[in-house]
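Please decode residue identities from the backbone states below.
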């Protein structure tokens, strides 16, 4: 089985957070949260779920650079982009088609696009 990284993009200009989501229509927010909870439950019950999480926006990021031998900690994201990963799931699926099926369900639940990428496997030991 292969592990897949399902990611949900957010618009960098808006940087939605759990606090800002409280500004949404309460009924719409409740419906999305219930759909995500049902999706997560289905993932868990199927044995596909490995873990998931939501990320704070890039404005809260620190970038650590120790490549020169000295550690520099920068109060900024590693890269600036028009969108960023706001939330994710790591799942284990039989193949890419199965991962896409799960991403389709995730997209419907969160009402957002979902990117599907497989995790690289370690090279075989010789």
């Amino acid at each position: 089985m292969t592990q897949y990284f399902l990611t949900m993009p957010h618009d960098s200009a808006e940087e939605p957070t759990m606090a800002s989501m409280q500004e949404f229509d309460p009924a719409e927010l409740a419906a999305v949260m219930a759909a995500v909870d049902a999706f997560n439950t289905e993932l868990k019950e199927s044995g596909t779920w490995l873990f998931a999480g939501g990320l704070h926006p890039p404005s809260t990021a620190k970038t650590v650079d120790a490549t020169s031998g000295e550690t520099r900690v920068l109060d900024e994201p590693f890269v600036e982009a028009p969108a960023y990963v706001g939330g994710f799931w790591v799942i284990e699926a039989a193949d890419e088609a199965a991962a896409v099926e799960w991403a389709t369900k995730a997209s419907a639940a969160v009402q957002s696009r979902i990117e599907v990428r497989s995790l690289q496997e370690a090279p075989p030991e010789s």
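Observation: The mean pLDDT is 90.
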